[in-house]
């Protein structure tokens, strides 16, 4: 955690006591005795979900107006989630109910969302693992979606404490068999109703037809073909049943190395150049095998590299780019910055915020991903080259880079359906090992398995959140993309020059939001994706402000224009009565929080949030700080 | 001078005064309990003030008819209509997009390119923009050493207002247009001994976060000429020349000097009332030359009381000479800045008390604070926010200053806000420039930014203002704000708190009034802090205090994008003209000096430029919300460096595209208006039984345009 030791020790000079005195005692806890009468809140179980254990009189702490409040309720653990029953959710008004998650409630933590569990013993916080000898008085759960829950167990019966704590630890930490994952029992119990609107559905890329459709859409069908050679996963379990290869590639080549060494098509640019990916051939020691591999690859390359007609550039992501370990390390540092236990911790870390952020390297990684994607876009767009991404299994960085390139270059991928299809194509069918990378089976908790690869992707672009991701608003991505960023890393000068020219010239022209979009990768406008990372932190919410304020104005205006349009059409076609006005999405929510829609369900008041520690020694400026404002009289005017 | 006896006929309503129970206080000043015959700890000046005060008011009365708040002459206004409102399509600065790659991105520039819109004429023979009253001095062939695009050959034109450079190279459309007022320092670089393009160079440091470098030919002493001419016109004060604002003959159809009328502004706040009165004690600036002529003080404090209090609220080195009153009092009384319309708590401002090492006390001052505390009929203590860090306030005792101690002020609570002094702020901004100009610090941007402490200072200022606003808004108590002198940090805190509390100040005119009131009239020392026309670039009095305030406003507008009527361009324009010396708005240190120089008569106000072209400065998302208190979140998680201001000269970093959400919104607004119009037409048509409404222009399907840049 971000210890309190980080703060104030910087300059080495004596740190004067902060002179600000808060008139709100921050740690004051009101456990209103009257509230001990637990409200009867029923547990909602999904089909197939089973209650495993429960404990009563658990106190859930709520951060409010910089003091903590407690709500008594029941803490339960099922085979799907941990849930706290106590908050009276019927108090939500209509708007809030509208944005409520129907499956996972405000106080639900799915078992797979649990990141770390801590127990508080005598005011000390310790991570909890395995069998416990002593049970904590307080349970702190850090979630992967960055929520932090505090449950007080002091008033809970000892028996129940034991049961719920060990239950939660067991069900969130013990290795699991794949078939025991909840979704299988859910799927068995739930009705499978997949009514898809044919016009508006996500392309799943699980049929030959889907791939042909994508080829046709991108006009890649001139040079590439969809093959069914892996039907039934005969050749390789890693590869999808259907995929696309160069038209001149003999299908038997796919069999040769079980799909390794085959350029697999991702996407075609309007000028006919393609983005391809390839998993590396197995590493061989003896010359003979190497010779065989080399001649095989020579043959393969001829299908995509036929100068002067077609040139291919190979981008080896395994050696010349970020390592998966880098990404994992950076993310685990980065996420800690947002798992904030209390107000004091928030303000203590606030002073050092920028250096903490920089130390995590996360934003730098984001920038490097974006930069790599722009470089590839430049090759495709400006140099008319095919680009072949190479990686050991072609299922990690390949997914990341190739989908980023497509978001930049293909406006279809910036629509909601297009984006979902892209994730399906590049990540799901692309064989990204979600099970390992997210450690869903908790194979080896402390190993380097978990890698948050898909996160750079989502951070790099807008999140498709509810009603916000409309086709018309795809230009927003540009805006969002423009926020990540920064300087360049060293690489070869020539490449640098081409890149520079491409990048500068694009940015000097007016943007066509339905064409190529390049994010700003320079400039200190480097920012944290506040809506994701700050969404659960009450101190960070701006009531009635933030980007949401302008977005909701835009949506309101859009609705108004649509309504007027309807009225006009109505006038044209009939003199009949005007249709009743449809329910407005955001009509009565003029003052949304900047963390909307996440913070909506959290009670808030109009009290300002005040930093509780602000003073930091200035170090080398100390002598200046001691000076008086001025010595000169103002008599000279 | 009894309160309310002022000669301001029709200046303010008589109603509240009539009902006031305060005649008791008339002529007697503080109730007798307030005037213990005990000797004061502070030397009091002798007491001929009554006469002086009366004289002052009398003169003030005479001035009131044609005084400082009156508009400019009608003739001038009328004639300005002709030139200032150039119709012209609202074409955009982006029309010049291809050139803007190289362009310096000042608004100054953009406004000038739009030719006569802002009253700028073009010198046709030279193709150099010229303001009325601007005269050409010289021109020279130079090489401009652009830090972003390398050396560019060009011709530089120098007038008494600006430096204008036009590229002579065919492939570059570079234009530099820099008001001489932004120049802070001119240095010669290189010389006969060095070689290359830099051999005869000039390095010009500007106040707006950039440097300009030129290389000149050796022949004909061209560098010496340019150096001397620039020095002369950039620093006119050192050469007994007038500042350009006095030569500027621009005309606008709106007179910015009429924007702020203190009587009207106080009346808007419901003042005077039972507890607060307007006083003209300082009418001729005799008591305090850094305070405005018109002040709002507690009803129960007579002008005599004010005089006694004044001696305790000032700066330590005041020469208590034999004259009536010290010449250079800082901000001697707590005067009202703002009153809460409902709970009647107030924000008052002043300078530090003269406590000194010995812990001097002043009963009058103590009583006076108590009077203020009681004005809202609350029993709670008065809250005093001392803007300084605790240590500094203590240290100030050594030089005679200090803060209100608990034992002397029983009914007050004191909090320190830990905001540093003007020197720290100046150094901090210097460090910001180091990491952004000409190149943006790349390898460790975030930690470099942190090491400048700039945003940390912003955070502290905002935090202080939030506390002030919260105290008043919650009705807990009235608030007194001071720092050392009461014109830097105090102005920041009161004006920001007022911006949070009072939505009126978030409109364009309201903000102008706020600046005019809390900054200009209350004596923020613009001349010293900015150094208009002054060559002493290393002057320790210079400090970016006002810039810091504008930055805080920008941070707020960023957090509340629908709450402000004005946009970012408005703020940048204010900052550009803070230095430009084209307008008289920010000249001089205080109202008395401005009046002496007849600034309102002899110069044009910046608000004339802005208010005659308001659309350009409007935020389309603005939603007027009365009574909404805005509390920004003063956390580093939300504060950001104002890239479009601090790094605007770097063409790579500049965000050239207008904000797409905003653009989209503006398009939708236009569309809505069009639909509403069509609907009205249709209604008319159907009532007149006219057939075929489809003849009206542009069907809806065509009207949903793709987002296209058209700025």
TrEMBL record, chain A:
<dbReference type="InterPro" id="IPR029021">
    <property type="entry name" value="Prot-tyrosine_phosphatase-like"/>
</dbReference>
<dbReference type="Pfam" id="PF12578">
    <property type="entry name" value="3-PAP"/>
</dbReference>
<dbReference type="InterPro" id="IPR030564">
    <property type="entry name" value="Myotubularin"/>
</dbReference>
<feature type="coiled-coil region">
    <location>
        <begin position="547"/>
        <end position="574"/>
    </location>
</feature>
<dbReference type="InterPro" id="IPR022587">
    <property type="entry name" value="MTMR12-like_C"/>
</dbReference>
<dbReference type="InterPro" id="IPR011993">
    <property type="entry name" value="PH-like_dom_sf"/>
</dbReference>
<dbReference type="GO" id="GO:0030017">
    <property type="term" value="C:sarcomere"/>
</dbReference>
<keyword id="KW-0963">Cytoplasm</keyword>
<keyword id="KW-0175">Coiled coil</keyword>
<keyword id="KW-0703">Sarcoplasmic reticulum</keyword>
<feature type="domain" description="Myotubularin phosphatase">
    <location>
        <begin position="205"/>
        <end position="533"/>
    </location>
</feature>
<dbReference type="InterPro" id="IPR010569">
    <property type="entry name" value="Myotubularin-like_Pase_dom"/>
</dbReference>
<dbReference type="GO" id="GO:0016529">
    <property type="term" value="C:sarcoplasmic reticulum"/>
</dbReference>
<comment type="similarity">
    <text>Belongs to the protein-tyrosine phosphatase family. Non-receptor class myotubularin subfamily.</text>
</comment>
<comment type="function">
    <text>Acts as an adapter for the myotubularin-related phosphatases. Regulates phosphatase MTM1 protein stability and possibly its intracellular location. By stabilizing MTM1 protein levels, required for skeletal muscle maintenance but not for myogenesis.</text>
</comment>
<protein>
    <recommendedName>
        <fullName>Myotubularin-related protein 12</fullName>
    </recommendedName>
</protein>
<comment type="subunit">
    <text>Heterodimer with lipid phosphatase MTM1. Heterodimer with lipid phosphatase MTMR2.</text>
</comment>
Automatic annotation (TrEMBL), chain B:
<feature type="binding site">
    <location>
        <begin position="421"/>
        <end position="422"/>
    </location>
    <ligand>
        <name>substrate</name>
    </ligand>
</feature>
<feature type="compositionally biased region" description="Polar residues">
    <location>
        <begin position="93"/>
        <end position="106"/>
    </location>
</feature>
<feature type="active site" description="Phosphocysteine intermediate">
    <location>
        <position position="483"/>
    </location>
</feature>
<feature type="region of interest" description="Disordered">
    <location>
        <begin position="1"/>
        <end position="112"/>
    </location>
</feature>
<keyword id="KW-0967">Endosome</keyword>
<dbReference type="InterPro" id="IPR004182">
    <property type="entry name" value="GRAM"/>
</dbReference>
<keyword id="KW-0904">Protein phosphatase</keyword>
<feature type="region of interest" description="Disordered">
    <location>
        <begin position="687"/>
        <end position="711"/>
    </location>
</feature>
<keyword id="KW-0378">Hydrolase</keyword>
<keyword id="KW-0472">Membrane</keyword>
<dbReference type="InterPro" id="IPR010569">
    <property type="entry name" value="Myotubularin-like_Pase_dom"/>
</dbReference>
<dbReference type="GO" id="GO:0005770">
    <property type="term" value="C:late endosome"/>
</dbReference>
<dbReference type="GO" id="GO:0052629">
    <property type="term" value="F:phosphatidylinositol-3,5-bisphosphate 3-phosphatase activity"/>
</dbReference>
<dbReference type="GO" id="GO:0030175">
    <property type="term" value="C:filopodium"/>
</dbReference>
<dbReference type="GO" id="GO:0030017">
    <property type="term" value="C:sarcomere"/>
</dbReference>
<feature type="domain" description="Tyrosine specific protein phosphatases">
    <location>
        <begin position="452"/>
        <end position="514"/>
    </location>
</feature>
<dbReference type="GO" id="GO:0006629">
    <property type="term" value="P:lipid metabolic process"/>
</dbReference>
<dbReference type="InterPro" id="IPR000387">
    <property type="entry name" value="Tyr_Pase_dom"/>
</dbReference>
<comment type="function">
    <text>Lipid phosphatase which dephosphorylates phosphatidylinositol 3-monophosphate (PI3P) and phosphatidylinositol 3,5-bisphosphate (PI(3,5)P2). Has also been shown to dephosphorylate phosphotyrosine- and phosphoserine-containing peptides. Negatively regulates EGFR degradation through regulation of EGFR trafficking from the late endosome to the lysosome. Plays a role in vacuolar formation and morphology. Regulates desmin intermediate filament assembly and architecture. Plays a role in mitochondrial morphology and positioning. Required for skeletal muscle maintenance but not for myogenesis.</text>
</comment>
<dbReference type="GO" id="GO:0001726">
    <property type="term" value="C:ruffle"/>
</dbReference>
<dbReference type="InterPro" id="IPR003595">
    <property type="entry name" value="Tyr_Pase_cat"/>
</dbReference>
<dbReference type="InterPro" id="IPR029021">
    <property type="entry name" value="Prot-tyrosine_phosphatase-like"/>
</dbReference>
């Amino acid at each position: 955690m971000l210890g309190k030791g980080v703060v104030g020790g910087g300059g080495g000079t004596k740190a004067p006591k902060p002179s600000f005195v808060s008139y709100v005692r921050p740690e004051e806890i009101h456990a209103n005795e009257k509230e001990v009468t637990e409200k009867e809140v029923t547990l909602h179980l999904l089909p197939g979900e089973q209650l495993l254990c429960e404990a009563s009189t658990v106190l859930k702490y709520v951060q409010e107006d910089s003091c903590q409040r407690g709500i008594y309720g029941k803490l339960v653990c099922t085979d799907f989630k941990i849930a706290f029953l106590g908050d009276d959710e019927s108090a939500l008004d209509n708007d809030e109910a509208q944005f409520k998650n129907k499956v996972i409630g405000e106080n639900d933590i799915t078992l797979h969302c649990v990141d770390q569990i801590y127990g508080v013993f005598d005011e000390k916080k310790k991570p909890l693992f395995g069998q416990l000898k002593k049970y904590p008085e307080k349970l702190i759960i850090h979630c992967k979606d960055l929520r932090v829950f505090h449950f007080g167990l002091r008033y809970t019966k000892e028996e129940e404490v034991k049961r719920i704590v060990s239950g939660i630890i067991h069900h969130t930490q013990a290795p699991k068999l794949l078939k025991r994952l909840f979704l299988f029992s859910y799927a068995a119990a739930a009705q499978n109703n997949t009514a898809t609107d044919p016009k508006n559905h996500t392309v799943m890329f699980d049929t030959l037809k889907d791939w042909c459709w994508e080829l046709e859409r991108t006009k890649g069908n001139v040079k590439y073909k969809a093959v069914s050679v892996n039907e039934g996963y005969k050749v390789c379990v890693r590869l999808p049943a259907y995929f696309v290869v160069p038209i001149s590639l003999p299908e038997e080549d796919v069999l040769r190395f079980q799909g390794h060494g085959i350029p697999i098509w991702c996407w075609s640019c309007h000028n006919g150049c393609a983005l391809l990916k390839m998993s590396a051939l197995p590493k061989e020691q003896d010359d003979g095998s190497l010779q065989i591999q080399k001649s095989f690859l020579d043959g393969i390359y001829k299908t995509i590299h036929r100068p002067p007609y077609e040139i291919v550039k190979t981008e080896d992501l395994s050696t010349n780019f970020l390592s998966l370990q880098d990404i994992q390390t950076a993310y685990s540092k980065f996420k800690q910055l947002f798992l904030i236990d209390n107000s004091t911790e928030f303000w203590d870390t606030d002073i050092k915020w920028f250096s903490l952020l920089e130390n995590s390297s996360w934003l730098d990684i984001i920038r490097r991903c974006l930069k790599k994607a722009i470089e590839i876009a430049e090759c495709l767009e400006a140099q008319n080259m095919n680009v072949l991404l190479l990686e050991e299994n072609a299922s990690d960085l390949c997914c990341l880079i190739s989908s980023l390139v497509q978001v930049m270059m293909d406006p279809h991928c910036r629509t909601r359906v297009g984006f979902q299809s892209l994730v399906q194509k590049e990540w799901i069918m692309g064989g990204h090992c979600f099970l390992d990378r997210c450690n869903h089976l908790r194979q080896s908790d402390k190993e380097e398995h978990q890698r948050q690869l898909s996160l750079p992707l989502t951070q790099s672009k807008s999140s498709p959140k509810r009603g916000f991701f409309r086709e018309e608003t795809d230009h927003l991505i540009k805006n969002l993309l423009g926020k990540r960023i920064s300087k360049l890393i060293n690489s070869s000068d020539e490449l640098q020059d081409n890149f520079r020219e491409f990048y500068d010239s694009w940015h000097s022209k007016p943007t066509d939001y339905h064409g190529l979009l390049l994010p700003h990768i320079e400039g200190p406008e480097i920012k944290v994706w506040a809506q994701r990372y700050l969404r659960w932190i009450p101190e960070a919410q701006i009531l009635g402000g933030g980007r949401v304020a302008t977005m909701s104005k835009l949506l309101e205006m859009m609705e108004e224009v649509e309504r007027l349009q309807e009225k006009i059409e109505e006038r044209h076609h009939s003199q009949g009565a005007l249709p009743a006005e449809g329910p407005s999405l955001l009509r009565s929510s003029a003052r949304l929080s900047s963390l909307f829609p996440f913070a909506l369900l959290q009670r808030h008041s109009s009290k300002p949030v005040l930093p509780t520690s602000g003073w930091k020694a200035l170090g080398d400026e100390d002598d200046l700080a001691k000076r008086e404002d001025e010595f000169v009289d103002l008599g000279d005017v | 001078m009894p309160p309310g006896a002022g000669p301001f006929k029709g200046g303010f309503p008589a109603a509240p005064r009539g009902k006031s129970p305060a005649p008791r206080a008339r002529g007697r000043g503080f109730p007798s309990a307030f005037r213990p015959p005990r000797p004061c700890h502070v030397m009091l000046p002798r007491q001929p003030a009554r006469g002086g005060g009366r004289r002052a008011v009398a003169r003030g009365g005479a001035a009131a008819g044609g005084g400082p708040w009156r508009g400019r002459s009608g003739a001038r206004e009328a004639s300005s209509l002709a030139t200032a409102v150039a119709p012209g399509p609202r074409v955009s600065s982006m029309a010049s997009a291809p050139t803007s790659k190289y362009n310096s991105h000042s608004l100054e520039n953009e406004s000038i390119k739009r030719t006569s819109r802002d009253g700028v004429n073009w010198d046709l023979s030279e193709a150099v923009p010229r303001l009325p009253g601007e005269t050409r001095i010289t021109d020279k062939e130079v090489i401009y050493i652009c830090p972003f695009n390398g050396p560019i050959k060009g011709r530089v034109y120098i007038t008494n207002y600006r430096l204008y450079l036009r590229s002579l190279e065919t492939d570059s459309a570079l234009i530099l247009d820099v008001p001489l007022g932004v120049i802070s320092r001119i240095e010669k670089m290189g010389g006969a001994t060095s070689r290359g393009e830099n051999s005869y160079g000039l390095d010009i440091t500007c106040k707006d976060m950039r440097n300009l470098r030129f290389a000149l030919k050796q022949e004909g002493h061209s560098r010496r000429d340019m150096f001397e001419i620039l020095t002369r016109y950039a620093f006119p004060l050192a050469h007994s020349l007038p500042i350009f604002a006095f030569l500027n003959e621009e005309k606008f159809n709106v007179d910015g000097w009429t924007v702020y009328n203190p009587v009207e502004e106080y009346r808007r706040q419901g003042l005077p009332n039972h507890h607060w009165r307007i006083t003209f004690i300082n009418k001729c600036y005799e008591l305090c030359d850094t305070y405005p002529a018109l002040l709002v003080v507690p009803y129960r404090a007579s002008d005599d009381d004010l005089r006694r209090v004044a001696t305790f609220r000032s700066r330590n080195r005041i020469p208590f000479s034999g004259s009536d009153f010290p010449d250079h009092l800082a901000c001697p009384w707590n005067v009202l800045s703002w009153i809460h319309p409902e709970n009647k708590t107030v924000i008052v401002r002043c300078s530090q008390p003269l406590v000194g090492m010995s812990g001097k006390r002043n009963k009058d001052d103590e009583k006076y604070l108590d009077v203020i505390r009681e004005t809202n009929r609350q029993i709670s203590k008065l809250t005093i926010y001392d803007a300084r860090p605790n240590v500094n306030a203590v240290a100030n005792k050594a030089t005679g200053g200090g803060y209100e101690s608990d034992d002397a002020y029983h009914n007050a609570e004191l909090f320190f806000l830990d905001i540093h002094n003007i020197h720290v702020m100046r150094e901090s901004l210097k460090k910001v420039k180091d990491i952004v100009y000409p190149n943006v610090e790349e390898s460790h941007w975030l930690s470099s930014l942190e090491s400048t402490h700039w945003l940390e200072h912003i955070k502290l200022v905002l935090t202080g203002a939030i506390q002030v606003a919260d105290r008043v808004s919650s009705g807990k108590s009235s608030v007194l704000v001071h720092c050392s002198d009461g014109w830097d940090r105090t102005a920041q805190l009161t004006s920001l708190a007022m911006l949070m509390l009072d939505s009126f100040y978030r409109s364009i005119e309201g903000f102008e009034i706020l600046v005019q009131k809390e900054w200009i009239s209350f004596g923020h020392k613009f001349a010293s802090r900015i150094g208009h026309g002054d060559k002493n670039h290393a002057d320790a009095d210079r400090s970016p205090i006002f810039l810091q305030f504008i930055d805080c406003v920008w941070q707020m507008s960023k957090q509340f994008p629908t709450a402000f009527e004005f946009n970012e361009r408005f703020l940048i324009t204010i900052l550009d003209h803070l230095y430009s010396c084209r307008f008289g708005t920010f000249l001089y240190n205080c109202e008395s000096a401005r009046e002496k120089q007849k600034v309102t008569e002899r110069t044009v106000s910046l608000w004339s430029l802005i208010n005659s072209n308001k659309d350009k400065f409007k935020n389309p998302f603005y939603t007027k919300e009365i009574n909404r208190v805005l509390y920004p979140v003063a956390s580093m998680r939300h504060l950001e460096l104002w890239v479009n201001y601090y790094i605007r000269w770097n063409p790579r970093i500049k965000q050239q595209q207008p904000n797409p959400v905003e653009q989209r919104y503006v398009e939708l607004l236009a569309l809505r208006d069009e639909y509403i119009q069509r609907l009205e037409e249709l209604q008319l048509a159907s009532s007149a039984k006219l057939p075929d409404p489809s003849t009206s222009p542009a069907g809806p399907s065509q009207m949903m345009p793709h987002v296209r840049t058209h700025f």
